[in-house]
Amino acid sequence: MSKATFGRDRELAVLRRMVGDTAAGTGGVLVIDGSAGIGKTHLVEVVTALAHEAKLEVAARTAFSLDRAAPLVTLASALRNCQPATDTFTWLTDTQESQYRTLDRLREALEEFAAHRPMIISIDDAQWMDELSALAVRELVPALASSAVRWVFAHRPGSTNTPGQQVLSWLLRNGAERLSIRAIDEPAVARLCEQAVAAKVDNTVLALAGGCGGVPLQVEQLMTALRMNGQMVFSRGVATVTGDELPSSFITIVEQILNGLSEDAQRLVRTGSVFGRPFRISAVAGLLDRPPAQLVPLVEEATAARLLTHDDDALCFAHDLVRLAVYGTLNESVRALLHREAAMISRAERRPPVEVAEHLLKSGGEGAREAVTILHTAAREVSGLAPGTAADLIVHALDLIGVEDPERGTLIADAVRLLASAGRLEQAHNLGRTALRAGLDPATEGTLLLGLAEAFKHAGKNATAVDYADQALEITGIDHGLTAKLFAIRAHALFYVGDLREADRSGASAATAGEISGAFGATVFGLTARSLVAQAEGRLEESLAFAHQATRTADRVGGSAVHRHPRIWLGNALAAVDRFDDAERTYLRGREESERLGTAWSEPLWHYYQTALLAARGQIDDAITEADAGVAAAERLTTHQLAVPLLGALIRLSVVRGDPAQATDYRTHMRRLTATGITAAPEDVAWAEAVLLDETVGPEAAMDALAGIHDAMPERPALITQDPAAAAELVRIALRAQDRARAAVVVASARRLAEHNPAVLSLAAAAAHADGLFRADPERLRRAVDAFRRTPRVLGLAAALEDAANLAVAAGDVTTGRAYAGEALGIVTAAGARRAVPRLEALLGQRPVPSPAVDAGPACLRQLTEAERKVALLVAKGKRNREVADALFVSIHTVDSHLRKIFSKLGIASRVDLARLVAERQPTP
């Protein structure tokens, strides 16, 4: 280590343990926080030194505020400068891929690299990391949790709501280890003083150092100032302080150090302070109009005074506080001149446009006008990768121009769209409302309203989305392409607010206008809305036809149409007509397409529909894993509205698995989201609430939650089309609540569905089951059992068998009842539907003899589900997560979720531990 560390025994112990764990193959996250100058940077350097001693790979970088307009620069720069050097990440230099494809490729590169060499990635001043780097961290930390990748972030807590600060808060909320740095104590201050002056110090020095509040940076700078200004004298190896005008604040300390330099060195340091980042000697030479070679001795003088330090081939200030103190010594006219020259130099060096704009803004005069143009251009360049950053740039530009400026309308339209896409809905709403009052041309106004409608739709605020779309559609003179997009958004939003008829009309209008204008993305989105409406109304063949038409259109025209991923809804329509294998293949192809295109927005939807398919197949544990992965993806992508239906599925599945406490936790999470105004289909929210209430409170409470679903059932039998077994469950709850009228409504709705969809056996089974339960008719229940046997819906079969068993036993036919109950018990046991097990065992009169255990491999894995065992065995053989996903035909995020559960169940922390555990406990041949 370059210098000793004093007063940090606790912190050093944490860092040594962390590096040791990483060397042993365990990943994780450490967040170091503390006030400015407290010593965070030094501890990051300690991590690097310890990592090198342990032969670990280190990727390190300090982030700067200017990083925000250069997508991925923070993380890419760290990885490109790994020590020891590697060419694994050189491709990050100039990638033209979509952001999500880049992150997917980076994930695989990191996982592959860490499989052979554990690594530490450290970011100092992480609050300044750029938006795409912050998104990458949010994506990669959970994805690489099972790999030997350790993340270390140092930051200064504050109110600045930067992408970096947001992701650090997210990491801490999700279990990252926190190391808060405090001021060092008096003995440590004394030892730091002695190190800084290379001598013992007396009480005069310690008394002055005591005024620094235990902040190491201030102590070190104070010692430098005293030495440079001759206010520290040495006698017999002991330093003492003399003089009357002693520095009393950090700024005066820095000023004294600066004043101790030669005039030329002072000029160099002051000039360099206009750069908010490391700078080359050639850059400051340009500002001083001197040959770079002449500045070398001046640089050496400044570094000896500990004002500047070397950062690879550039110079930077010892700390940003030092730079700000030096910058404060410049008078306004000199600052403006230097910033004007710095803008020219930055442009010549092809620095990011926002850096050029920052200099222009501080140069005054005409610079501000030019800065607006540059900021607008920069925003457009980064909008696809960093919409939040782009929005900040546009808003900054808006602050610089007058209300009458002719460019203001275009700037506002762009700003609203970007703010909305970044999820900053309130700010977008307020700015858009202001702009609309001021008046815009039709095309700009329509585009602005479309951006707001899309944003509120994607945020789950569907009623507001409809309002914005309606406002736009009232504008005369907008083109067919814009009209098509508005109708498509309107159709999906109307579906979720329950207006099925109008949603279908809007979907049809979107499809027609899209074909006319060539806006085929709107055509596809409109058709998928019509598919959803048709399914909700029980027109399953039409639902399938619309989904097929949307998919064929997307495949034919490509482009934005493919990005709408109609296979999401095609798979759903196929599952509704019991074509599970076709649905599975459709989801697999669609997911592969989504990964290839990098359209991460769709990820939670793939998880949602795959969850429904797994649950229908009776694979409860796998369905829960899939839904958990979907919720994690939605939160990682901040698409919280997509987490709501997944949480609804988790509530229902947890009840079926016999875990109402876990279901209650999921409901709490779901309610937190819906309390923000997010809306979702009642089949996702109200049905989940009712299932849990029926289990924990009683049928009357469940019926209260189901009132809306029951009342809409004749026109909207969506719950039964999604899950035919729900028909009997609805009847059962109503009968237990003494509400035969509503039970009869369900029976009639199930019968109509079956009649209108005669090719769908599961609907015939559902109708017979609901009617048999309502009438206590054993013949109808037998028909339900027979029909369910010919479908892949095994839990529907189990429920029908249980009701048939109850009726048979009640009628005195114990033999038939036990036969039905035994078959049902086998199904629910295999499925993991533990809620039904005690009831069926009671019907059988005794606990059945367990069937011979299936070979689950090593005994240590028998507590895992079948899917988890498959993942564990492949990982133990050295397979990477992508290889496991490909081998098992699941998403890589599902593999991540499985691994987190495997590690938790087995009490291990790394892939190395898993491989060792499996190897040690393999059964002997």
In short:
This is LuxR family transcriptional regulator. By secondary structure, the protein is mostly helical.
Can you give a write-up of this model?
A hairpin with a 2-residue loop joins strand 9 and strand 10. Helix 29 (603-617) packs parallel to helix 31 (643-656). It contains 46 helices and ten strands. It has eight domains: 9-182, P-loop containing nucleotide triphosphate hydrolases (Rossmann fold); 187-335, Arc Repressor Mutant, subunit A (Orthogonal Bundle), CATH 1.10.10; 402-478, no CATH class; 481-598, Alpha Horseshoe (Serine Threonine Protein Phosphatase 5, Tetratricopeptide repeat), CATH 1.25.40; 600-697, Serine Threonine Protein Phosphatase 5, Tetratricopeptide repeat (Alpha Horseshoe), CATH 1.25.40; 698-779, no CATH class; 793-851, no CATH class; 859-920, Arc Repressor Mutant, subunit A. The protein has a five-stranded parallel beta sheet, sandwiched between helices. The chain is mainly α and 925 residues long. Mean pLDDT is 89; it is low at 848-856.
